[in-house]
Amino acid sequence: MSTILVQPDDAPSGQSLTAKVPSLSPMESFAKTDLRQFCFLALQVLLLTAVFHLYQLETRVFEQTVAIAFGAFFVHYWLPFRFKEPFLVAVSLAAAFYILDLQIAAMLVGAGFLLFATVRLPIAFYWRASLIAAMFGVLIYFNAIQKLPIGFPALFGSLFMFRILIYLYDLKYSKEPAQILPFLSYFFLLPNYCFVLFPVVDFATMRRTRYQRDIHAIAQRGIQWILRGTIQLVVYRIVFYYNDRYTLDQINSLHALLTTMVLGFLLYMKISGQYHLAVGILLLFGYDLPETNRRYLLASSFTDYWRRANIYWKDFMLKVIYYPVFFRIRRKNILLGQVIATIAVFFVTWALHAYQAFWLAGKWGIHATDSLFWILLGLLFLVNMLWDNRRGRPRTAATGFGAKLNHAAAVFGTFSTITFLWFLWTAPTLDRWWYLLTCWKRGQ
Questions:
Q1: pLDDT tens digit sequence for 355-403
Q2: N or C: which terminus of the chain carries fewer CB neighbours within 10 A?
Q3: How far apart, in whole angstroms, are the C-alpha atoms of residue 289 and residue 163?
Q4: Which helix (H) or strand (E) holds 416?
Q5: Residues in contact with 49: Cβ distance below 8 Å, sequence separation at least 6, in sequence order
Q6: In angstroms, rounded to a whole number, what is the distance separating the alpha carbons of residues 261 and 264?
Q7: What's the rounded Cα separation, in Å, for the pair 80 and 183?
Q8: Residue 442: per-residue pLDDT
Q9: Helix (H) or strand (E) holding 299
Q10: Among 225, 216, 233, 198, which residue's Cα sits nearest to residue 290?
């Protein structure tokens, strides 16, 4: 509230009345509407809709989800600020029943409210977290014996398997109890229904960045990311088309082997494109989230690749694993703390990817090639980190032809190594991987 002095015409001279006029909060001021800017945003959204329909980039569920999201954006934009987030939550919950099987939707929403009721119990945080772990244990058991409805485990895991860890972490250090609206807006993200592989959105970041600047700038960046994701999905189609020409049984030359490796790594364009689409849609509703991937094909080192390839996962690991481990050990030895925290990050990453495979595919993703991939990538990252610590970061960017040539060589070396490791990761067994590496010599 702001206070102003009012001098009415019939008031005696020298007297004034104090009137209080409500002032807008920063978020409300950033959510101010503008017809001209809205029309420009709406035109771009409609053009994107036409592109989706023309190229049929994804599944029918994707088209339904995008139609609902874009329609909700047109309404959400004009609503009074206090109604914006409740409206989005209502649309997201209703969309689950429209898009998904009714039984699965009911189970997902019921599980969400049960988890919220658990985190609001008037007991110590340790016991609330233990109850939630027990719930997950029961579901893991029923998923292992295949007693859950088909499709439910993948969607439940996509919504809750990682975000519940972040939510509990933030809740543990929060001074306020859990609130139903932030809880539902965080877990029931509308794009999540069509993308089971979903970026690990951070709860605190999502709440902090909501309407942190002008909505038109946020939405415009969201549209740019949706367009970027669309382009990446188109590139994925091209890569997939050419990759089909180099099936694993047709690697009969070194050229075919190298082509298969590169095309196999570039298939990640699908995940990268879906991530940009998902987060871009969230930006339309005022959540000014960071980008999910940043030119990872141009990474110049293994630490640089880790920072670029999946930014949300990197931030997730830093938050819940690296910093807690590092700050506990650094008092004794900073370097030792960095090494142990890094090892912990890659070990947990390996374990959580296996856990993710259990929810999404119904079986634990633990095999020799997967383990070897994370061990080698972790070792390369650790060596790279220690080298950077010893060398130190240059205060100014190097210029000149020699520096650019060195940078290009570093990018090529990083890309080649990651491509080789990716080929290892995607091979079903070590024997199969070795056969594919060497069969071209035999002309097979």
A1: 999 999 888 878 899 999 999 999 999 999 999 888 776 555 567 788 8
A2: N
A3: 15
A4: helix 401-426
A5: 66, 67, 70
A6: 5
A7: 21
A8: 60
A9: none
A10: 225
Query: In this structure, what token pair is assigned to residue 120?
Result: 């609001």
**274: pLDDT confidence band, cut at 50, 70 and 90?**
very high
Asked if 190 and 281 touch (Cβ cutoff 8 Å), the reply is yes
Structure tokens at 60: 């029918």
User: What is the C-alpha to C-alpha distance for residues 264 and 243, in angstroms, rounded to an integer?
Assistant: 7
Measured between alpha carbons, how far is 237 from 270 in angstroms, rounded to an integer?
8
Q: Which two tokens stand for residue 186?
A: 């965080």
Which pTM value belongs to this model? 0.89
Q: Tell me the longest C-alpha to C-alpha distance in the chain.
A: 105
Look-up of token digits 């709406």: 42
In the chain, what is the straight-line distance between the N-terminal and C-terminal CA atoms, in Å?
78
443: left (phi over 0), alpha (psi -120 to 50) or beta: left
Residue 345 is encoded by which pair of tokens? Answer: 């990050």
Question: What is the domain partition of the chain in residue ranges?
Answer: 34-217, 294-394+409-442
Contacts 24+ apart (CB under 8 A), 358-367: 358/140, 358/143, 358/157, 359/143, 359/153, 359/154, 359/156, 359/157, 359/158, 359/161, 360/153, 360/154, 360/157, 360/158, 360/196, 360/197, 361/154, 362/143, 362/146, 362/153, 367/428, 367/429
